[in-house]
Task: inverse folding
């Protein structure tokens, strides 16, 4: 090795499939809050769509009579399924409130207005206003966790 | 159809979805029922389809959730590749899913509402 | 911004650089660590130049103005897309400074990346003033007037130096190069918002497409890394509003 060279190491092989790419962008720098919000929005969105797909077919059994319906509900009324349903409620709450934040940023001037870019630059689109809505989404998701636990497990407050 | 048109429809659908989903979750939890277990009982569930107002709510929820969910899925899939063939493939798959979901959902609502 | 005191920064820094020449079949990607002497005000670009001058002349990277205006020295510094000339080693706060080529671009050699796709996307949004009476040889009678308020509507987006950091940080670009990218869309807005421009019909179909402005999902990483305060995320949301307003028949 030449003088001044401390070490030479091989780089890792990078997988290039759909899932690895999504992970990579999520975990790369810059690690800003809004990008994490997008990650959770996507995960919750896909999760909700999958749930909804099966929900349509499960609830379709209402037309097959009481026995079919009750049989199915009997299978699905258990703690594991409740945890799944809880995740659906929490996911829907975060997805909804964060989605409202996205809509507001796309449609109103909360995202900012063009300014003279004088140093130090003010990045308006990553401002405190929209971060507040994001924190609200997290708080509401936490509240819906509590509400979900109370309702799903039939607890009395 | 232009992307902006799809997006504008999505905004309207989002408003409808927020309202109907909130009501649906409330109705499954505490609104008009004495708990979640009660909401899942056959007669309570069937009543949801038989009452015109709640059947309409379910219809709007079905359409809104299907559009919004599949629009989101389409957007994620479109990122993967470019080109008219990929766009056509994604649109095709999404439309097939939409027909399946809306078809089965409508069938349930119409049959349950009409009596069987 | 954490600036370490003189006592805290070591006398020699470890500069860990991605090395790879894709044109040589036997050349494998590797991280080579160089020992570079620290002196006050050392930037990452200075460190690379020192390593190139004193240790390894084969080290390849782009640079030009070394003052944050040409946009040539975009690179990943400790994983974050940055301009090498504007990143002070003392500010990084790490013993090892890791330099790698920008993600989402093909590597030409070592830290230099291929911007062909980037420029061709930029061209697609027609980044120049379009006038109805325009032609290369149209005789211009007088200058096109604009008030200061009208200029400020697009001025910050005109500050773009095309360094490519935003496209490197963007997660949607990270999924595939189909998406136009924050740089192009912010420039499309720059010209759309310019009162002198009459070329909306030329740009509308490009930005209002399946891979246009509506694929932006507000990750905000582009604005987080922009070194010139352009705030491309703001530009894209404003562009979305213009597109939808005009779709509904407004101005």
Result:
């Amino acid at each position: 090795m030449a003088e001044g060279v401390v070490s030479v190491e091989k780089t890792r092989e990078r997988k290039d499939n759909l899932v690895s790419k999504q992970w990579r962008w999520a975990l790369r720098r810059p690690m800003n809050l809004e990008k994490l919000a997008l990650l959770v929005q996507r995960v919750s969105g896909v999760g909700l769509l999958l749930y909804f797909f099966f929900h349509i077919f499960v609830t379709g059994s209402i037309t097959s009579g009481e026995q079919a319906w009750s049989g199915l509900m009997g299978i699905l009324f258990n703690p594991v399924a409740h945890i799944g349903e809880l995740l659906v409620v929490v996911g829907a709450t975060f997805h909804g409130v964060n989605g409202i934040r996205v809509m507001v940023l796309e449609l109103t001037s909360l995202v900012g207005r063009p300014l003279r870019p004088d140093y130090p630059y003010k990045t308006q689109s990553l401002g405190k206003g929209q971060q507040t809505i994001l924190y609200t989404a997290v708080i509401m998701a936490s509240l819906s966790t509590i509400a979900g636990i109370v309702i799903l497990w039939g607890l009395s407050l | 159809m232009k992307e902006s048109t799809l997006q504008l429809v999505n905004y309207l659908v989002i408003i409808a979805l927020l309202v109907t989903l909130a009501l649906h979750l409330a109705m499954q939890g505490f609104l008009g029922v004495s708990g979640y277990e009660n909401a899942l009982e056959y007669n309570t569930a069937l009543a949801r389809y038989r009452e015109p107002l709640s059947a309409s709510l379910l219809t709007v929820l079905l359409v809104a959730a299907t559009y919004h969910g599949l629009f989101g899925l389409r957007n994620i899939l479109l990122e993967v590749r470019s080109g008219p063939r990929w766009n056509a493939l994604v649109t095709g798959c999404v439309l097939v899913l939409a027909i399946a979901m809306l078809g089965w959902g409508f069938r349930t609502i119409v049959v349950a509402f009409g009596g069987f | 911004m954490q600036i370490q005191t003189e006592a805290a920064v070591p006398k020699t820094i470890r500069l860990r650089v991605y090395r790879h020449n894709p044109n040589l079949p036997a050349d494998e990607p590797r991280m080579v660590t160089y020992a570079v002497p620290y002196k006050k005000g050392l930037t990452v670009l200075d460190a690379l130049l020192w390593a190139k001058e004193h240790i390894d002349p084969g080290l390849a990277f782009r640079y030009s103005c070394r003052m944050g205006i040409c946009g040539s020295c975009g690179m990943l510094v400790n994983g974050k897309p940055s301009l090498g000339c504007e990143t002070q080693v003392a500010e990084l706060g790490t013993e090892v400074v890791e330099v790698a080529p920008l993600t989402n671009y093909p590597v030409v050699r070592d830290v230099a990346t291929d911007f062909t796709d980037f420029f061709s996307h930029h061209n697609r949004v027609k980044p120049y003033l379009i006038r109805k009476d325009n032609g290369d040889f149209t005789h211009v009678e007088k200058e096109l007037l604009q008030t200061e308020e009208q200029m400020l509507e697009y001025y910050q987006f005109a500050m773009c130096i095309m360094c490519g950091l935003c496209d490197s940080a963007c997660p949607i670009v990270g999924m595939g190069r189909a998406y136009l990218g924050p740089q192009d869309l912010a420039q499309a807005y720059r010209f759309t918002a310019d009162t002198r421009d009459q070329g909306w019909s030329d740009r509308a179909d490009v930005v209002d497409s399946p891979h246009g402005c509506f694929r932006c999902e507000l990750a905000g990483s582009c604005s987080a890394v922009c070194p010139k305060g352009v705030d491309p995320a703001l530009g894209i949301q404003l562009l979305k509003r213009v597109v939808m307003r005009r779709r509904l028949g407004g101005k």
